[in-house]
Amino acid sequence: MRKLLPLGLLLVSAAAAAVLGARAAGEPSARQRLAALDRSGAAPADEVARLAREALASAPGDATLLWRRGDARRRLGQDDLALADLQQLIRTAPGSPYAVRAQRALPVLLARVGLDGEAAEADEALIAGRLADPVAVLPRLAETYARMGRSQELLETIGRLRALDRARADADPDLAWLEADALERRGPPREAAAVMLAFAERFPGDRRRGEALVRAARARAETGELAQAIELAGRAVAEPLPPASAAWVRVARAELFERAGRSREASDDLRAALESGADEATIERVLSRYVDIEMERRGTEGALTALAALVSGGRPAVAGPAKRRMEALLEGLAASRPTAPDRAAFLVALAGRADPALAVPPALRLAAAQLWEGVGDCARAARTYRELASAGPPVDGEAERGLERCRAGASTP
Fold first, then answer.
1. What is the torsion angle, in degrees rounded to the nearest 10, for the CA atoms of residue 398, residue 400, residue 402 and residue 404?
2. Is 102 exposed, middle or buried (0-12, 13-18, 19+ CB in 10 A)?
């Protein structure tokens, strides 16, 4: 009797036979399809990666295929996978021309995955091995050292570039900024001011000019030259800056004004910073300092008046925090000591003009109602008494008595 094969083995045998039949019939392999894709001039990275992966299944260490897959993954943004392919290629086929390509691509990939130390070593190896033009590599290496906070290596790298191509080194604003930044952080204030001012003068259209002027101003202030510092900060304020930078520059000049005892100008700059489009964290910080200065200059009522203007006429991003700060000030005022009726009436009216929904402490509203009652404005007083009585403690009893007095006065002929 004829012996039958198991069903699973039959299926596998059938699949293998189909593959062999297809190959015998001339179906192209993954490697052949990859070559055809290259000849067509239309080689999308995802398709290249797929075909290279298929081909590598039968030739795991092939240098060409490892390069093709690694390069395709790099273009797809699959940095970790690309890095693994290129490192395998360099390790298993160091003499291949594709290994040189992989070494040239390695520093950028390493930096993209956050391995700055390894990226710097890879760039240094390119230069030492004469595998790339140092004039092209050194600017990238300088940026890597800057990210790592290694200012000495950064300055030496720019010096190496300057020795090879001074025009290239001196014309690059990014390199000039990195150099100025490193020198400013290391140098004494007078030298720090000089390098930042030099950058601002050399690159008048650069987006970092405003920051350079402010940093030069702060360095000048450290040497006691406040007038010159304020003048430099004024030049920064005049720069066309995006909103966040404009706010930062205004705050910086406000600090200098404060140091010079010019609180009004400091307050004006902080108000301008709030109106310039600062982010949420900056708004909270600037608003706090703005209120402190206004308190020092004009007292609590002056600070509340300044806040009311921001609540009613400021940007929505500023109005909310200003309203909360105003409510906190009013609460603190009411809790600290009894408020005179005339002052309470002023504050209640101020809050109402700023935002009718602004929360005013009951004690202030009660004192204001008592003033209105005293001057004969019983309708207004009664309306406030009624609202306070219905709101409950802590002033509902006094509010009810005030309401009764208003009713009695209204019934008297």
1. -150
2. buried
Torsion of CA 246, 247, 250, 256, to 10 degrees: -130
CA distances (Å), 279 to each of 247, 283, 284, 286, 411, in order?
9, 6, 9, 10, 57
Structure token digits, residue 103: 């070494």
Residues 54 and 96 in one domain: yes
Q: 């059938």: which residue's tokens?
A: 14
pLDDT in tens, 133-146: 999 999 999 999 99
Q: State how far the alpha carbon of 40 is from the alpha carbons of 29, 34, 37, 52, 56, in Å.
A: 16, 10, 5, 16, 22
User: Residue 98's domain spans which residues?
Assistant: 45-132
Question: How many CA atoms within 13 Å lie on the side-chain side of 27?
Answer: 8
Alpha carbons 216 and 402: distance in angstroms, whole number: 63
- Domain-embedded: residue 50: yes
In a domain, 202, yes or no: no
Is the backbone of residue 88 left (phi > 0), alpha (psi -120 to 50) or beta? alpha
**Is residue 384 located within the same domain as residue 342?**
no
User: Is residue 9 helix, strand or coil?
Assistant: helix
Question: pLDDT of 158-201, one tens digit each?
Answer: 999 999 999 999 999 999 999 999 999 988 999 999 999 999 99
Q: How far apart are CA 293 and CA 263, in angstroms?
A: 7
- The pTM of the full predicted model, rounded to 2 decimals, is 0.76
Q: Would residue 277 count as lying in a domain? A: no
Query: Are 37 and 68 a contacting pair, CB within 8 Å?
Result: no
CB 212 within 8 A of CB 196: yes
| Residues 327 and 369 reside in one and the same domain | no
Residue 333 and residue 323: Cα distance in Å, rounded? 15
Q: Beta-strand (E) ranges in 245-363?
A: none
